[in-house]
Amino acid sequence: MNLLREYIRELLVEEVKFSGILKVMPDANAIASVLILANQLPSEAVMLPEDKFHVTLIHQGILKPYRKELKSMVFPTPPPVILETFIEERVDKVQNKRSWVVWLQNQSEIKTYVQEVMSLLGAPPGDPEPNRKFHISIANLTGNTSDSVK
Question: How many domains are contained in the chain?
Answer without folding.
Answer: 1
